[in-house]
Amino acid sequence: MKRMLMILLLASLSLMTASCTTASPYQVHVQYQITLTDVFKHQHSCSLYQFEKITKELSNAQDKEKLAYISGMIDSTLIDNPAFLPAIILINDETKQIIADEQLHSGVLTLYKYINDYLKNLQSLLEQNDLTEIQNRRDELKKLSTLMPKINDDRLFSNDKTKIESYKKDLEFVLQQFPKN
Predict the structure, then answer these.
(1) Contact between 90 and 108 (Cβ < 8 Å)
(2) Full-model pTM
(3) Is 154 helix (H, G, I), strand (E, B) or coil?
């Protein structure tokens, strides 16, 4: 009887230990995916908002002191390199499905390239302290500032075809509004 009780106890303990220690790799992968998606959404939203804020502030600039402040905003944006995370995610086969539609991958990367180039161009004007040229671009700056909220939403990450198509149209329109150098 003791022997039978001992065997039953050992069998129970080994079953409990085995059931507690097995973790599904799928759950870990899903957790990783959710985290990466959240990081990308946050970074994307912040980058677009920062660009919106810079163009809005610059369109309202009235004096050279304000230009110095905006130059600092541009510096901090360019130092972080907003295109880094999207480029890494959208090129990697395991992570590029964060954005469901393949055509949007190149559109998003193009958007970041345009934003980066535009900010570098603005930075060179700010280094020259050229308030007149900045004020001559006021309409262009206001237009770009008002367009950023149109593409700063979750449609980019949706699986709904209607939302994706709507986002594609808005993104294409925004890309066309960037001045060609």
Answers:
(1) yes
(2) 0.77
(3) helix
